[in-house]
Amino acid sequence: MGRWQPLRDDLPAEVARLVRELRQYVDRCEMTTATVAAKTGYSRSSWLRYLNGRRMPPWSPVSGLGRLAQADAEYLRVLWESAAHAWKEEGPAGESGPPPVPRDPAERPQGSDTPTGRPPGAGEQAAGAWILTARGAIATASSSTACARTAAS
After folding, report:
1. CATH homologous superfamily of domain 13-140?
2. Are 115 and 102 contacting, i.e. CB atoms less than 8 angstroms apart?
């Protein structure tokens, strides 16, 4: 489909995987970026930056799109965590700073007392475990996703 811009060559692989997954949700649900914006509360320009790999999306809009596409929330969270870690470590040229992290405790993984979603004191070993978990989830997750049908579709 010629709808999307090619992703940048310097984009970390984990981020590219997340972006491709989000693009598939939008395509499968036959939504425009304006529709996604209206249904998630994030602007069309923000969605264009996220879906073209120019900015790492915060968890909130990713989970919102996942709900619209009736995606597996656990799989999507692992994919996002892996991408967020890669963005922070390798980020594309010209980008700075880590991605936004959910401050709302309800949006953090269970058992977490920190905004990063990891137990206090967890360091690189925990981050590496997230990446390994994400790779396993990516390899085993089903690509079939239904879409939530609403009157405003």
Report:
1. lambda repressor-like DNA-binding domains (1.10.260.40)
2. yes
